[in-house]
Amino acid sequence: MANVEKTEFRLPEPQPKASPARSADVDARAQEGEADQEVSLRPRSLGEFIGQPKVRDQLDLVLTGAKKRGVTPDHVLLSGPPGLGKTTMAMIIAYELGTSLRMTSGPALERAGDLAAMLSNLMEGDVLFIDEIHRMARPAEEMLYMAMEDFRIDVIVGKGPGATSIPLELAPFTLVGATTRSGMLTGPLRDRFGFTAQMEFYGVDDLTKVVTRAASILGVPIDADAATEIASRSRGTPRIANRLLRRVRDFAEVHSDGHIDLAAARAALIVFDVDEMGLDRLDRAVLEALIKGHGGGPVGINTLAVAVGEEPSTVEEVCEPYLVRAGMITRTGRGRVATALAWRHIGLEPPEGVMGTLY
């Protein structure tokens, strides 16, 4: 039976660790436990998780009901764009249940034997997290059906006419699947999840709380209006908010006393090419190619990609989703079209006929 690499996470209570010895010449200002602080930005419990109120309330009911009955909870499917907290939510589920979390990803499960090796090592009540579950190989996915439903798998031993099927009982477990493309999940797999949660983009208020909490953990003093400024440029995504906070922290420590005020936040975000709507260099290059190079469109994705020197998949998967959601471009049967908002964002007045978000 093939083995697959897996990572097991235990969630004990945090323990203070002695910081390693540092040379004063190399790291005179390093704080004790700084590396641990960087890791601890993820919330540990549902009570600490910011945003997604519907998902939190629904998941709390699922977990609490299962604990009261003394059974393993139903399998959970978390879907939504990257960076909204699907992996964090899987860790929280294991923490709330007081069990171990084992993590893998769909692309890593290429053969049924890979999945069988992982499932056979699960203890009762464990949480198995499969990221990008829609990218599992079909043989592994078909084995997962029986494991999710009956906590049993059939292992084939031998080949040809002499092959034998050996049933293997599994300890009851909870599968948490995460996907950024729920439409690519097969019907049989989707139907076996007892609870499905759709993670939504965050509002500025929730992201401001995320930034404020992260700054507190990192020991970075930050003004309320600076936290809001960072949050407003984070594309509705906590992962981006935390990344921008770290870069603004770097700027504040290099150019001032480390305190983040509104002026420092704005200056830092200019240095890192993040404008007031959260667009970066590539986003603006796409808009300029669409508007200045092709009069606002319609333009095909391949033409836009050539114009900005990127792969079509990069433009379509990295830039386009946010530009569409922000109301800057629309997708039509003939190609991408810039809206009036996009024209004004790059400093041009839209020509007559460009109305709102549509041509």
Automatic annotation (TrEMBL):
Record-linked PANTHER family: HOLLIDAY JUNCTION BRANCH MIGRATION COMPLEX SUBUNIT RUVB, PTHR42848
Comment block on domains: Has 3 domains, the large (RuvB-L) and small ATPase (RuvB-S) domains and the C-terminal head (RuvB-H) domain. The head domain binds DNA, while the ATPase domains jointly bind ATP, ADP or are empty depending on the state of the subunit in the translocation cycle. During a single DNA translocation step the structure of each domain remains the same, but their relative positions change.
Cross-referenced Gene3D superfamilies: 1.10.8.60, P-loop containing nucleotide triphosphate hydrolases (3.40.50.300), Winged helix-like DNA-binding domain superfamily/Winged helix DNA-binding domain (1.10.10.10)
Keyword Phosphoprotein set for record: no
Name of a matching Pfam family: WHD_RuvB
Residues binding DNA: R331, R336
Quaternary organization: Homohexamer. Forms an RuvA(8)-RuvB(12)-Holliday junction (HJ) complex. HJ DNA is sandwiched between 2 RuvA tetramers; dsDNA enters through RuvA and exits via RuvB. An RuvB hexamer assembles on each DNA strand where it exits the tetramer. Each RuvB hexamer is contacted by two RuvA subunits (via domain III) on 2 adjacent RuvB subunits; this complex drives branch migration. In the full resolvosome a probable DNA-RuvA(4)-RuvB(12)-RuvC(2) complex forms which resolves the HJ.
Main location group: cytoplasm
Protein name from the UniProt record: Holliday junction branch migration complex subunit RuvB
Keyword terms, alphabetized: ATP-binding, Cytoplasm, DNA damage, DNA recombination, DNA repair, DNA-binding, Helicase, Hydrolase, Nucleotide-binding
Record's subcellular location: Cytoplasm
GO annotation, cellular component aspect: cytoplasm; Holliday junction resolvase complex
Lineage: superkingdom: Bacteria
Organism: Corynebacterium vitaeruminis DSM 20294
Binding site for Mg(2+): T87
Stretches the record annotates as Head domain (RuvB-H): 276-359
One of the protein's GO biological processes: DNA repair
Record's function text: The RuvA-RuvB-RuvC complex processes Holliday junction (HJ) DNA during genetic recombination and DNA repair, while the RuvA-RuvB complex plays an important role in the rescue of blocked DNA replication forks via replication fork reversal (RFR). RuvA specifically binds to HJ cruciform DNA, conferring on it an open structure. The RuvB hexamer acts as an ATP-dependent pump, pulling dsDNA into and through the RuvAB complex. RuvB forms 2 homohexamers on either side of HJ DNA bound by 1 or 2 RuvA tetramers; 4 subunits per hexamer contact DNA at a time.
EC number: 3.6.4.-
Basic and acidic residues bias (residue ranges): 1-11
Segments for region (Small ATPAse domain (RuvB-S)): 203-273
